[in-house]
Amino acid sequence: MWKAVYENDGSYDGIFFYAVQSTGIYCRPSCKSKIPKRENVYFFAAAEEARRAGFRPCKRCRSDLLDYQPIKEIAEKAKRLLDDSFRKSCDLNQKLRQLGVSSHRMVEIFQEEYGITLSEYVSKLRLTEAKRLLSDTDGRIIDIAYSVGFAGLSSFYRFFKTGTGVSPAAYRKEYRK
Where does the HTH araC/xylS-type domain start and stop, copy by copy (predicted)? Predict the structure, then answer.
């Protein structure tokens, strides 16, 4: 158990908790706080045991919560933001910065969580919506291009043809419902 604490091994989270006598705090094995002195550490099978022994939960690793995963939470917020904003020609990067992490870190987090980059995800959303609008509506192609977040028709045509292998007009002709 000490090795798991020393190495911040998240695979042991939920299996046991450790408490530090000098601080009065209990943590998960993956806690990124400073490694305590071994002689100050006690191990518990459950968080409740640590609380009963007089220790309080760590504010960093949130050892009091069963499934606290801040990185996953940030990725989910970013995904919801992209799902809601991909059609708008607003600055998505500015909105993503409001989540409290750098653009570079946001790209890493999103890719780790979903296996796809932010821009690939937005492109996928735009292509899916464009295909739906072309096959299900009578909207003009230029209006569809604007509605999925493109500022011009030529960039939309290039994007659509790269993603599907056919032009928007050819796609509409083939898949019209």
Answer: 76-174
